[in-house]
């Protein structure tokens, strides 16, 4: 099976899955596509067990095994997905909530890495599973950033206030880049690198700040160029070049490509109507919305198919369960102070619960896990990551919108209940 034939098959399945979802469940696209991918993987595995000579199933399974999911996400899709996601964020509201977003994206990632890493190490030790503290911290680093793709797809349906929506969106966009840098530093330390914690912290800051500066500068320059033309094809071409160029340029300079492309996307999404014609601006937004939806669908479909290549052992069920609970507990610890603040000072009831359940983990975490160097820890980290990501997307992603709606109705009922203060 050629690469084009495989891509055609995947695209057809994604389109069919999207149509079925729109006609029946109307679940969040990320949930629906992950379910389609998991179902496809189980069907192929079943066919292979029934008859190993089924050539079509065998060819697809072999092709999926050869697919470099980590490179597909980190090397090709992430730049465009983050750019499209950043264009959806209200930049003015983001500026107002900058302190909460930056603290969650930096201190929050570091705290979650420690809580999850140490917790998983202790759980593995108690269950008799060989896992060193250094590699447990690698898992903590790759699972701590909330997945921007899953979060952005979910919060749009949640009916949240502009404040909570931009906090969840902004955190997911920025902690993505920070998380990748922290993960790289943890892998270097676990693999016996000579870097000290202070040197790793300096590297994180330099890559994050430098990437943001490069992205903002690139975005500002492209906006200035867009003002000189009124041609939607040229403007879309410029935005595509910006997304690819900011990411590639930052990576070439050893800065955070993810944060660079987020900074560029925020500026393009905030283009004033006097910068480009209204019709051209609408065309630009429509184009990137289509890119976002299509790549999002393909990504989560591929995430589900990774069930075919991720190694599983029944003896690890206890550790998988512990990891899911630890990731949720770390999320509670990280967001609760801001949840209390938003509740007490800004009237955002249940902010802590919404921010906890809206912090999804997904394809990015698995892509990072797949980039772990070969060794005895890699298979273990892969299986834990896949279980946590699948739980997050399927369970949290499917229940977030009903939960947010129920909390909003409950809050509204409390506001009008006689004798009860607002």
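Sequence proposed for the structure above (422 residues):
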């Amino acid at each position: 099976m050629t690469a084009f034939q495989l891509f055609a098959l995947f695209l057809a399945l994604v389109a069919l899955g999207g149509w079925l979802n729109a006609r029946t469940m109307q679940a969040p696209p990320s949930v629906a596509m992950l379910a389609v991918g998991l179902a496809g993987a189980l069907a192929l595995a079943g066919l292979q067990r029934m008859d190993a000579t089924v050539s079509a199933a065998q060819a697809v399974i072999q092709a999926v095994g050869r697919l470099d999911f980590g490179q597909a996400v980190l090397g090709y899709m992430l730049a465009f997905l983050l750019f499209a996601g950043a264009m959806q964020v209200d930049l003015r509201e983001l500026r107002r909530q900058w302190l909460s977003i930056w603290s969650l994206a930096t201190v929050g990632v570091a705290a979650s890495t420690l809580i999850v890493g140490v917790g998983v190490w202790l759980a593995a030790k108690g269950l008799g599973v060989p896992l060193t503290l250094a590699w447990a911290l690698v898992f903590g680093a790759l699972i701590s950033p909330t997945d921007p793709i899953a979060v952005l797809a979910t919060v749009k349906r949640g009916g949240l206030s502009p404040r909570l929506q931009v906090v969840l969106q902004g955190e997911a966009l920025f902690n993505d880049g920070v998380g990748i840098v922290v993960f790289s530093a943890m892998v270097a330390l676990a693999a016996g690198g000579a870097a000290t914690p202070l040197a790793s912290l300096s590297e994180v800051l330099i890559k994050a700040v430098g990437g943001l500066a490069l992205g903002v500068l690139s975005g500002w320059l492209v906006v200035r160029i867009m003002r000189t033309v009124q041609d939607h094809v040229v403007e879309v071409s410029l935005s595509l070049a910006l997304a690819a160029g900011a990411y590639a340029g930052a990576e070439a300079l050893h800065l955070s490509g993810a944060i660079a492309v987020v900074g560029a996307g925020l500026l393009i999404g905030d283009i004033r109507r006097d910068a480009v014609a209204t019709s051209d601006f609408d065309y630009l937004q429509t184009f990137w919305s289509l890119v976002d939806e299509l790549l999002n669908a393909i990504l989560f479909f591929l995430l589900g198919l990774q069930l075919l290549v991720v190694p599983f052992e029944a003896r690890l069920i206890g550790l998988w369960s512990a990891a899911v609970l630890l990731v949720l507990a770390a999320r509670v610890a990280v967001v609760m102070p801001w949840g209390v603040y938003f509740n007490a000072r800004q009237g955002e009831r249940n902010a802590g619960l919404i921010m906890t359940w809206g912090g999804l983990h997904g394809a990015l975490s698995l892509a990072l896990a797949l980039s772990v160097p070969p060794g005895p820890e890699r298979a273990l980290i892969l299986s834990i990551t896949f279980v946590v990501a699948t739980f997050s997307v399927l369970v949290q992603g499917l229940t977030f919108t009903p939960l947010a709606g129920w909390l909003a109705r409950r809050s509204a009922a409390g506001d009008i209940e006689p004798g009860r203060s607002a």
